[in-house]
Amino acid sequence: MSSDKITNRAEKRTVLLVAAIASFLTPYTGSAINLALPAIGREMEINAVLLGWVATVYLLSSAVFLVPFGRLSDIVGRRKVFLSGMVIFSVSSVLCAFANNISSLLIFRTFQGAGSAMIFATGFAILTSVFPQKERGRAMGVAIAAVYAGLSLGPLTGGILTEYLGWRSIFLFTVIPGAVAIIFVVSKIKKEWAESKGEPFDIPGSVIYGASLFLIIFGLSDLPSFRGIIFVLSGSLAFSFFVHIEKNTAYPVMNIQLFRRNRLFALSNLAAFIHYSSTFAVAFLLSLFLQSVKGFSARDAGLIMVFQPVVMVIVAPLSGRLSDRFEPRYLSSAGMAITATSLTFFIFLEQMSIWMIMSNLLLLGAGLGLFISPNTNAIMSSVEKRYVGIASGSMGTMRLLGQMFSMGLVMLIFSVFIGREEITQGNTKEFLETLPLLFSILSGLCFFGIFASYARGNIRINL
Fold first, then answer.
1. Chain CA centroid to CA 167, Å
2. Which of 107, 134, 231, 443 is the Cys-Cys partner for 343 at CB 3.0 to 4.6 Å?
3. 0.85 cut: is pTM over it?
4. Per DSSP, which regions of 115-201 are E strands?
5. 257-463 adopts what CATH topology?
6. Closest Cα partner for 22 from 149, 201, 209?
7. What number of helices (H) and strands (E) belong to the chain?
8. Class (C level, CATH) for 1-197
9. Mean pLDDT of successive 10-residue segments in the chain (463 residues)?
10. Which one, of 335, 337, 338, 324, lies nearest residue 378 by Cα?
């Protein structure tokens, strides 16, 4: 019930541990599976396009279900939805490990994405419900550090597991922390949080929302083809219709008024979208540059690129703790500025030595870590407790849309300058010509994000 409060320090630590495990699992699975895709393709004898859907269907499913499950958790209870998500995620992971064809693997990955949405939509919402504002930033920082620990360890352990135990072992490995989290929730966390208990669930709005998001994300992944453009436009029209009907719905799946009347909430979400849009493609571009141009192996390229998430794991908890004492907008804006500076340096990537690249990755990691924890704290602290599920869902949606937009932008530029071809020694010149343009666009977008981040206002004034 909404009146139940966790004040015992040991119980708080249990909630934080469970949230950290959940925050680790979902990004770990995504980054680790990327290393296993070639092995999956060889075993199941599928083409590159179909193989790409092994990763894409997971993102699509997560994005479509994030906001609806966030709203549902406000009604039926965040603990219930979180626990159900952990069970679905763990069971579908086992099923993925034993999938014997691509159709069954894609179906199980869809369920895994839905479980991930239930976890992500409620994890940060539960932290917001449990930790008071003066402790919330520190808790958010720990959970976000777990996210980037997953991103850091995913490529490393994914490659090792695939090489020595096969790609199916990656899915089985995720069951272990998932089972630990389930045991802790069942045995240690008895409280429930449902500030909107008794309100009806907006099924029509959820369906239209899911359909519009599916069309947009599918279209972004297919740009710059004509089909991709049609899907993005259709999805945008469907989303406009969704916004219109939600304004006139008594209990909407997404409270549009939060964006219209809550400047802090709206601009914090916009800042998150811009930040993910300007940074997500960096790892993809650097991976191609280090392997296709510099001739590094996948392992060595991964060792170079791990500097960024490692720094983020260190900085995120510190910036989260600082956001309990200082206004998040100052910290997030500073983080956005550092990120934009690092992206600007990458315009000259071709002339940079490996040591310069690693140093700039340290700078990028510091900027990302300084931005994300305070920004998350701002989003989750800017709404009433009855809406924290929706806030958590919208935050996750901004992340996924930003990631897809970032990759869609890269694919668009590649298509114009290189064509829909694999990056090889034969087109290295064209690839290198696109890098300054891409990093100029990404850094310019990030510099614009500084103003969106700073203009949001203060948490302590808005509460």
1. 23
2. 443
3. no
4. none
5. Growth Hormone; Chain: A; (1.20.1250)
6. 149
7. 17, 0
8. mainly alpha
9. 54 87 84 75 74 78 86 89 94 93 92 91 82 80 81 75 86 91 89 84 90 83 79 92 87 81 86 90 81 76 80 87 84 94 94 93 93 86 77 79 79 72 64 90 93 76 45
10. 324
